Amino acid sequence: MTPSLHLWLIPILPLIGAAINGFFGRRLSRQTVSAVALTFCGAAFLMGLYVAARFPSLELPHAEYLGHWIRSGNFMVNFEFYLDQLTLVMLLVVTGVGFLIHIYSVGYMWEEGGFYRFFSYLNLFMFFMLTLVLAGNYLQMFIGWEGVGLASYLLIGFWFTKDSAASAGKKAFIVNRIGDFGFLIALFLLIKHFGSLNFSQLFSSIAQQPAETAGVGLLTSIGLLLMVGAAGKSAQIPLYVWLPDAMEGPTPVSALIHAATMVTAGVYMVARSHVIFGHAPNALTVVAIIGTLTALFAATIGIAQTDIKKVLAYSTVSQLGYMFMACGVAAYSAGIFHLMTHAFFKGLLFLAAGSVIHAVGGEQDMRKMGGLRQYIPWTFMTMTAATFAIAGFPPFAGFFSKDEILARAYEANPAYWFIGVTTAFITSFYMFRLWFMTFFGDYRGREAAEHGHAPAHGHGHGGHGDPHESPMIMLVPLMILAVLSVIGGWVGIGGRFEHFLSPVFGEGATAVATEALSRSTEITLMVISVVAAVLGFYLAYVLYLKRPELPQKIADSLGGLYQAVVNKYYVDEIYGDLFVKPLVDGSTRILWHGVDQGVIDAAINDTADGARHVSDSARQMQSGNVRSYAGWVAVGAAVIIAYMIWMGVR
Amino acid sequence: MNILNTHILTLVTFIPAAGGLLLLLVPRRDRDIRIFSLIVSLLTFGLSLHLVARVHRMLPGFQYEIDRAWISTPNIHYHMGVDGISMWLVLLTTFLTPLCVLISWNSIHERVKEFFILLLVLETALIGVFTSLDLFLFYFFWESTLIPMALLIGIYGHGRKVYAAVKFFLYTMVASVFMLAAVIWLYAHVGSFDFVTIQNAIRTGQVEGFSTAAPWLFIGFFLAFAVKVPLFPFHTWLPDAHVEAPTAGSVLLAGVLLKMGTYGLLRFNLGLFPEQSRHNAPWICTLALVGIVYGALVAMVQPNLKRVIAYSSVSHLGFVVLGIFSFTQAGLNGAMFVMLAHGISTGALFMLAGIIFERKHSYEIADMGGLATPMPKYATFFLFITLASVGLPLLNGFVGEFLVLSGAFQANPWYGTIGATGVIWSACYLLWMYQRVFFGKVTHPENSTLADLSAREQLALWPTAVAALVMGVAPLLWLNIIDPAVQAALTPFAQVASKVVGQ
Lengths: 650, 503
Hints:
The complex is a heterodimer. By secondary structure, chain A is mainly α. Chain A has helices at residues 9-24, 30-54, 85-109, 115-134, 138-156, 163-194, 199-207, 218-233, 242-245, 251-260, 265-272, 274-278, 281-304, 308-328, 332-359, 377-391, 397-412, 414-439, 445-450, 472-487, 496-505, 507-516, 519-546, 550-558, 560-566, 571-614, 616-621, 626-649, and strands spanning 62-72, 75-83. In chain A, a hairpin with a 2-residue loop joins strand 1 and strand 2. Chain B has a domain at 275-496. The chains are: A mainly alpha, B mainly alpha.
């Protein structure tokens, strides 16, 4: 029996912080509010480190039980915690990156109204995210799952007086709910057929079942439904539409929730359910296809975006696609590896973008930036590290994890690999496009300001002359993440990361992988992906630094296709026409005015009118005179009672 | 202690009405009337806690029973008792009434005394519905709820209040007549109004002509309850009644009155006619599912705050009916839990709607917008309750919905699947409504100076918020008592099923 680590404290600590700031924050100074938020978030991180330190001495998987939650007949759900290698990786990523972003937020949000509200929500998010990660059963995971959705809703809509922000928050919540619908049905299937939602019990009983190789059986259905949930949370086709809109939230939120942690919950959930997917190869294939298509699709949209955060948002969707591609070819540890490095470099990209936006007074349009590297050198350097990491240049972190995924994808099906490499090229291109447009050339913001252009966010940092570097409290997290973006991938060298996770996902899969591909094939693939990254860099260099007039010409020559990409393939419009409008119109015209008023009420009123014609007294009853009306009631009651007594005597 | 156990139900049931009578005689000043009513309702709540404190958890049958012969011809008994199902509905009533008193503190200026008398009489009638075990007594209380409620709407309501009151009254009165006929048939053939006696007689097959009459009896009870729930398509009285009703009326109407219908379905339709229930379940579940989706969609497009909440009740009560007619342990536990959770959160939503009405004299969403800026506390409470209603885990709405849907899914995967779309719809209509009321800039200048919650209003709202959280985090406090009662209610269904299997 291994000792209790009091894992329940890890999510509860930030919840206490959220409660303190939520209830009393209004009366506290900004210093106190940030101290509270950082203390409780930092304490969760320290607990994470403590768990990591105790990790070698634990008997894994380590389970801790806190109490009963729901019971109905024989069905029971507990508050319980589950710790294995996968949990540990997620725990450290969430608390570590989360803590850094908390620090950064103090600087970024200092001038904003509702400072306490922001940190209360941020701590609340940590509570739910850690509940999700540490959960010992699917329903507790669902608590975190829905809870992070709530935190996301609150934080996207943080500037709620802006209609677009409020709508974006609502959209995120509702689209996530569509995914949750799938998740719930999967849970009902599990309850119906296995009678439990506890991970240990479920996985051991599923492991004894034969794999479903043909058709859509029970486990395949469960897998597909879980994937619906994952597609909602992790912004995959067709439910990705909420994530780009979510950029309405403050930038630290985009970094923490919509890049580093929450959106990876779907990947984590699929990896956690690998036993189910392992027995449902068809479901796994769907995961791989959705991931691959999303990676490519989102990357192409990223090419034409001009809002710096929108580029990063589509890039997040695309990178999440890579992670699903990895899970889909049963390379879970590669997926989790990419999840981790992505948390470093994408968290950094957003934070650095926030620093850029901060520097230029709230402007997010890259066409009004340029030449910023001389004004904000630290931001520039850290962003450079992150850009090279996401583009897949060795020895940056993204190279190792992306390479791992592509190698495993090639082994499963060269088509995945081909699309993956193409996406890598596009990724490199649009990321360097962002890099060049933002940091190189001449600063284009001044002319814009002179033309009376209002900043995209009317919230605070107004009144600007030259762009200025961010304060130290924002730069230190950037630097730490920059270091991680460089060296964070080295843990994967020689398959060490996979080996660490192998007790979870099985050593077998890993071993097969490294042996299946010959050394030479592996190196060839690696060279090809590096070449793709370099090509992307070069193309961006030519188009956005050397010959900046070219992109417009190319765009003009492409015509409709270019317009389609700029308009994100009109998916939002199509969804609006296909689902939203018919639902609202149909509900108003057909259901409410039609059925409710036109049919049901009309029928009842007609009946009432008919009755009125028949009897004068009935009309008097509806005369509106309350006293006579009360009298009728009394008379009616008396008659009924008299009738009953008569019946009884008879 | 034994004496208290015997008389506790009598006390809990009649103290409010007795208080109302005293009110008639004693206090003069409006302030005294309010304080007196608050004390009476709090006393009732305190006494009702005794029911939970002294309950025998593992005992499935009725507890705190009192059975005295009342009238010999016809054979009417004063028979009361509660089990794990009705006990919580009594508590829900006694919990909500003090809050109703608080929320009506300033909004009722005229005929104050009559208002609080009606409120207290209504409380007695509602509790009586849940405690009666004699069908005559039950019917008496059942109809007694109509009069104070209709008067509350008709006198203290707004707008087309008389139309709404009459519609409410006639709708439910007409439907109740069918139940009355069924009750009388049962009395004529069993010779008793006693629920337990009738149930035993039916179970042992001693009722002459029962098998031919059962389908009609089932429908008789069902109609009365279905209108009260209200089950689609009998729901159109509800939005009208709510919109015109005073706040306290809406709170008790949505919070408790609707549960009389679902309670009746559970106690009488399932309890007396298990085979008929099973036989009719497919179309009843279909109506429930239609209600879930239809109520949500119509709620989404309502321009009036109270109508949104009213239609959301149609949707939520659809979950309850679905759970009941799934005949599964999870479904029934969930149905019970949704009843309680809906009572708390919808009660709170109507209180919140009433608070804004006191300031704006309007429920129209178009008259609001951006209210989070002038009224942050109000917005926070509203959001919390909205989230409870949306079914966010760790708040009270989730547990019940989850259990209902998982039970319905066990009964028939399609029930669970269609019902589960409710999680999407509820997010749509509630968040959209919330956005239109609270987010964006203040669209009407006069709204920028609206006063935030007063201390009294917070006092009325805090208990609902705390209850919503406790019910979500520790639902076992409730489920542990509900579960055995539900198991007992399901025993005949296990027998029906095994009979079918046996054939």
